[in-house]
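Invent a record, attention on tokens:
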Amino acid sequence: MRGRLGRAEAITAVAHKLARIFFALVRKGEEYDESKLILADERQRERQEAKLRRKARELGFQLVALEPAKA
């Protein structure tokens, strides 16, 4: 975030995200469960990838997954 927004905006964005998580937990009376956050991040990544593939297809491109470089 810092690279895209700058230092002050990134700090504000992270604080806002933490405040939303805290408020949701207090409102629902739940304990913090990081596995839910991980699943939400995975779903968001899948949606972003699907959107990019759709956009590439509309522009006449085909995306191909590359193998990660081996160390």
